[in-house]
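Archive entry: two folds, one per protein. Generate the first.
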Amino acid sequence: MTNRISAWLTGLLWSLAAGLACAQGSKADYERAARLREATVNTVFKQRVRANWLPGNTNFWYRNDLAGGRREFIWVDAVRGERRLAFDHAKLARALTQAIGKPVQPERVPVDRLDWGPKPDSLLLASQGRWWLLDLHSYTLEPTNRADGLSTSLPATTQPRPTRRTGEETSITFVNRTTAEAVIYWLTETGERRRYGTVGPGQRFDQHTYAGHVWLVTDAAGKTLAVFEAVEGGGEAIIDGAATDQPAPPRQARPRRSRSRAPQSPDGQWRVVLRDYNLHLHNLTTDQERALTTDGTAEDGYTEEQVYWAPDSRKLVALKTRKGEGRKIYLIESSPKDQLQPKLHAVDYEKPGDRITVSKPHLFDAVEGREIPISDVLFENPWSITDIRWAPDSREFTFLYNQRGHQVLRVLAVDAATGKVRVVIEERSPTFICYSSKFFCHYLDQTGEIIWMSERDGWNHLYLYDARTGQVKNQITRGPWVVRGVDHVDEAARQIWFRAGGIRPEQDPYYVHYCRVNFDGTGLTILTEGDGTHTVEFSPDRQFLIDTWSRVDLPPVTELRRASDGRLICELERADATALFRTGWRPPERFVAKGRDGQTDIYGIIIRPSNFDPNRKYPVLEDIYAGPQSAYVPKAFRPWHGTMNEVAELGFIVVKIDGMGTSHRSKAFHDVCWKNLGDAGLPDRIAWMKAAAAKYPEMDLSRVGIYGGSAGGQNAVSALLRHGDFYKVAVADCGCHDNRMDKIWWNEQWMGWPVGPEYAEASNVTHAHKLQGRLLLIVGELDRNVDPASTMQLVNALIRADKDFDLLIVPGGGHGIAESPYGRRRRADFFVRHLWGVEPRHEGLTPAPVSNRPTEPATSGAD
């Protein structure tokens, strides 16, 4: 009893001391977090070069957007490596002022495009909606009749709508032509407004974004001025009050890997017609029709959309599809906006172990009107059959067979005359084949070869196959590094251009570098060099590349390099982050430590508050997401790391770590997740934090919290259940707490099929009785991504085990509702309350938006 009283008094004194001396969780802390995020917006300049290549591909120009809305135009001779101002900005400003009758400032010359002039020492430039000829000696301007490519403006509407697509990285430049300040918001997938800054009258505001993201512009009172959708290649969002109510143009559909041929044969003689789930052949010459199949039913039938004609029009392949059980989940919307009474929503949602829809190919002779039988011995249990393609000579067709359980992947070829099936490529794994993110199959029809991606030697690499014999001709890439993706296959030169991780052993293995290699494995050339992660844009003829690289602690550097050997031609820009550092912003620190085995390097970052004092002790928070489909520690430079920076300002040291079981390392590193998602790399994360605290004693490992959403929600709860001696507080959002309750494709890939006892062992529900520490569960009642019942079943288990916890159910909330302003505030409060031991004193202050780089929600067991 004495010991218990002593421990209680010690804890009480510690809490009082923390509250009085540290004053964490005050309104000032919350305000500083919001102010710092806002202050970091638009504070880094020259981060990216968007090259505009001129005919001949030896010269290009680009624009630098600078502080205060200033801009400069740069001209580059790529052959000579010469970089200079494209023109005298002051002289051009005077010439434009005279030409258009309005004052033009030298640092804001309104030039949209540049091109060679028709005579030496002259330029064509697009400005103010027309083309001008500029004499670089006299700086006289003459209007021309040229009218191409003048518009870079994005369509503007007045109809706010949620973001529905996240495409390639791009940018959007807001140009305020009104006389008042405009406010910029990103509209999330749920339609939530997230403020990203303001743009003054006559000013410009450059925002990183993704194609498909929707942006709302309002006046200071909140009235809608315009709505824009970002596009690939960037564009200007002109704010001038001229937005219309016309809907945005339809976006292009994403291509699918397996696309059916049209029901009409290539020679125009036949058309496939569907009648009562069976296929009929209609002769377009004679107008006669005959049944091709008679075995189709509503439950196991054919469709016109899954017919693939041979090039010679004599044969065709059709997929016959047997329906699965068609599981649905039901969600109750308690507080709909358009009525008083709740609504019931039904969502199609297959779960691990369900009887799935299965499609198999059937071969037909169109001339004879008969089926050629195919044995399905080599593809009897498909998860999917895709990528059906005929050989150019129509002698056979191939398809990709992904066996359920994801341990067998085959390219199969079927003889068009006999229906005999042969194996072209077979990939097997005792654990899993990462088909969803490590798949590449490129057919070389002219030479009868296939380029194939595999982890069979323990690392993700490329192999060259003889498609006729099914034999490996040679391994194309090899070594203790991984191919991250293939960008271009040059069949004429027999070269592959690809991205690699770990190929420079002295650097972080997650950094992406660009490379080229010959089909036979010779001539491996690393085209990028800098100690950071890289993105590259090639000149149209691929003779030059513009390489932008950075680290979390190093603003971007942009270089011009020669594509033949990667040689540096010249440095184009080094980002200017002076204004960012003036805000008090602190860059994350990169940290590496050994994992659970004492040998493997584990990589992560440390984020400290802007008012960090090395003489104080800080609780540690881990932002976790351990989905095996990727790796998650930021590698590129960003001014603001969203929630991590936000909660750090409340008096925490925040860490993010990629433990074993995540991707982009060796196959052995990745395999730790196999039938073991409950592990979440937590032993590696704990070892990493202990090593970090040994170096930085300000990290107080007696007060460690953890938070995450989706798969990260599962991970956060698992931390308390399995490692409650280390983690003390957790907040879990929309967690897939039992993998049997979550979506089928993600969970079967990592946990296997059939559903075995490993599912129960990985489940947080199974281990609920082991809960130690403080837990807050957050879930949206309309989460269509992870069944909300997964959270509620965990709640049920915790109640049965008589465990204390907190629960926040958000009416109308969807997946990731903890990232809403209310959810983020509740999460932050929970950590302040239970790791600092004080009550938050924000007085209703809502945290700021989480990021100035809106991103697609994490793909997870949760997505």
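Generate the second and append.
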Amino acid sequence: MTQTRRENVEDLLIEEELKDSYLSFAVSVIMSRALPDVRDGLKPSQRRILVAMNDLNLGPRTKFRKCAKIAGDTSGNYHPHGEQVVYPTLYRMAQDFNMRYTLVDGQGNFGSIDGDEPAAMRYTEARMTSIAMEMLDDLTHDTVEFLPNYDETRSEPTVLPARFPNLLCNGSSGIAVGMATDIPPHNLTEVVDALMLLLDDPETGLADIMKVLPGPDFATGALICGRDGIKQAYQTGRGNITVRARVATEEARGGKTRIIVTEIPPQITKTKIIEHIADNVRKDRIKGVSDVRDESDREGMRLVIELKKGEDPNVVLNQLYKHSPLQSTVSMILLAIDKGRPRTLTIKNMLELFLEHRIEVVRRRTEYLLARAEERAHILEGLKIALKNIDAIIQTIKKSKNVDAARDALMKKFKLSERQANAILEMRLQRLTGLEQEKINEEYRNVIEKISYYTSVLENEGLLRGIIKDELTDLRERFGDHRRTEIVGQITDIEIEDLIAEEMMAVTVTHDGYVKRLPLSSYRKQGRGGKGVIGTELKESDFVEHLFIASTHDYILFFTDRGKAYWQKVYDIPQLSRTSRGRAIVNMLHLSKEEAITSMIPVREFDDRHLLMVTRKGIVKKTALSAFSRPKKGGIAAISLDGDDTLVGVKVTTGDDEVVIGSRKGLAIRFNEKQVRAMGRTARGVKGLSLKGDDGVCGVVMVDAQGSLLTVSEHGYGKRTPFEEYRQQGRGGKGIINMKVSKRNGDVVGMMDVREGDDIILMSSSGKVVRTPAGDISLIGRSTQGVRVITLGAEDSLVALARIPAEIENGAEPEAKPEPEAKPEAEPEPEAAVEDTEPEEPEEPEPEKKPEKKPKKK
């Protein structure tokens, strides 16, 4: 026995056996499970379900039958993989949110777009829809090939006649071995129009096809963004399209806004959307959402996303598109079985192959009907012979011993065929009446006409195509509907700034190099002389050096005292608490140890404006703004400096502005920027203000005809002076008095242009911040010491100031009531003004005149 069993064993290499077995498995999956046939658009399991329902006569006007019966018959007769495998395919063909045109009419719980599972098949019932009947029409007219089923007890069609273009209208998806298909659904009306174009002109190009068939039409509607992906898929068989949910906004109570979702991308459930949104809200990826709820009913879908008060719905919507399935990428892979092989197709290929199938079906149907008509004509011809010779026919039959003898006698005597003789023998006596004879003659004439028509159809390709056009027109009239999915303009990838609300920010940089941003609404207004609020908690050795206002979407150009420029977005600067110290700027910018930030310029676009730079030694340089649009990580050169010079300030100019440069000792010069020619980034510049002693430039301001010049000193004094008091001078002069500097008010810290409705933010070295209206600061002459604008401690000093323009809309909460305004100290009488001096030769300025002393009284 052992020897016998050994003789039946064959040694094989395991590699070869695995290869052959896996290849067989792959072919089975590809051909018999995962991929649809290009002709009827059905996978074998779907086709067998429809055939089984047709066997049960479950048409659209019959009674429903239990899905368990349908699944059982399908499994038992055609698809031997178990009814539990058949049922999911069955109920999906009945789900109107999955199928653009359902093939099964379900009764009971067949699931929902919420992600609910269908009821068990013993509870649900089904029958075919009218469109499914169009798939099976002419099945009995020898239009398609049949093969034996798995146990050879019956036969099944290899493909359905499919008058309805199912593959394009309903699409298909599946994963085989080494390949996958993902064909989106389309609108029947548009598909029929495209087929009509090809029937009229087989050379029709893609551009003309896309005029009538612009793109997919999903069962759930939604929006397709752009046509490039559609065109690519139609041309090559592969492409990606971006699909977005259809949304609208509503105003709710309390000034809040709601985002309403009425249509969602395909193959996405509402439950999945809600879960993703809730999860990303918890992870702080989606900000501004306070609640998500489902208000859908029989009228349609309604998914409500409640926003927090004051949130920008466009920004939140971008966050939802970025981090939730409200925006999905749908792959288009036009892969199907063509002539027994998987093939990637273009849209024109799919249309052509469907038409080829229909031409073949109509031809075979016509041949079948012609054969039946010819058979009937042959019978009728025999009956006509019998009627013409009825007496002889009757005598011949009466003389015959049996049926076989009668048949033979009739065939021999009247030259009839066996079928004609049988028909005469089976003819009833009532056919001998005159009326019945006329009916036979009329039927014969009709059959002859049909034979002539069928013959002409087979001989004339135009008539055959005309039949197909008539059938397609009938389909369009009975089942055509309007497009659900709207195709909108192309969108770009969502950038980071699309996810961030545009808001005005106060950005601060400390002496030790810590940077942060705060919403402008964090600072409340106070009267002149207020004590302020703590804006930054700093260690004793640190103090705030820079403060400016910019939008979160602005670019920031950082200029260092070493003459280098760096590039950053405001939203990339960390937003921290009001009392936070900030983030080390060295972690954001690649600064060297010796560099310190001296100027920061908020810029929305790098246009044809210029940057005007001023150094501590009074050197001025002008360079095109566009020269700074592409900085490197390590920074780029902005100006060439002398060894002991540093960059003090940078301003944006239009090309015809006037500039005022001021020094720490209270001098200022005003001249037109045209006196400074535009130079390259690495140029040194020219002299703007002549200085003497240890004086140095403290600021640069662009002249504003509607504003005034604000100057503040280190001991908390400030004043506003009309620009008219500063006459124009030639570049390089010594300047005129801007502020009377004394021990009482200290050196000048900074200067800027302000308007009456502006607010001013002042910051001290200890981190105190005061926000006060510019109009509360006295408008007085040039050679005065100013009035107190901030109350400082004995060891404290003013270090920075910034302007908040009146037109800024920051959307802040209602401001707190201002603290009682501190009573200003008694201001001394202003000292005598120093005479204005403007040297003829800037290199050798005349000495200033000292005020005359009054003689003492005796």
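Annotation attached to the second fold: The chain has four domains: 42-161, 246-325, 356-484, 502-804. The radius of gyration is 45 Å.
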